[in-house]
Amino acid sequence: MVERQKVNSELIQEVKKIYDWLDSQIENNIPEKCDACGQCCDFITYDHRLYVTVLEIIFMVISLNVDNLKPMQTGVCPYNEKGKCTVHQYRFAGCRIFNCKADADVQSQLSEESLKKFKELCENYNILYRYMELSNALNQ
Asked: Tell me: the pLDDT tens digits for 63-106?
């Protein structure tokens, strides 16, 4: 049990490093800040999808405690309440990267780079890499 806790702690720190790297890249490469209107969290109305890696789900489960993980029952992110993200510090890479005002090529490049980092981390920890739509990930 102690070994598992140590691995979980290390894994969380490694995912956090990727998020910190990503946040710094966003700050340096996407000058116009998102106004955090929350509209993009309504995936059906906004006409887009959010994909997450298995490591991001593990990070969310460990950070929030599995009992606080919410299923996605509609086309709206279950962590969006009244237009605000209730898990902002734990939000997924796609949530961090997406900005309706930013250059799509920059966002695409950041997505590819972060996915590469998540995939390498999965390989390092012998975790099956999966990239899935948020509703599938939360409802499993």
From this structure: 888 788 899 999 899 999 988 889 989 999 999 998 887 888 99
Cβ distance 134 to 51 under 8 Å? yes
pTM for the model stands at: 0.88
DSSP string, 17-34: HHHHHHHHHHHHH--SPP
Could you tell me if 98 and 92 are in contact, meaning their C-beta atoms sit under 8 angstroms apart?
A: no
> Which residues form the domain of 118?
2-138
Sequence-distant (6+) residues with CB within 8 A of 108 are: none
Instruction: Quote the CA–CA distance of 77 and 18 in Å, as a whole number.
Output: 22
Number of domains in the chain: 1
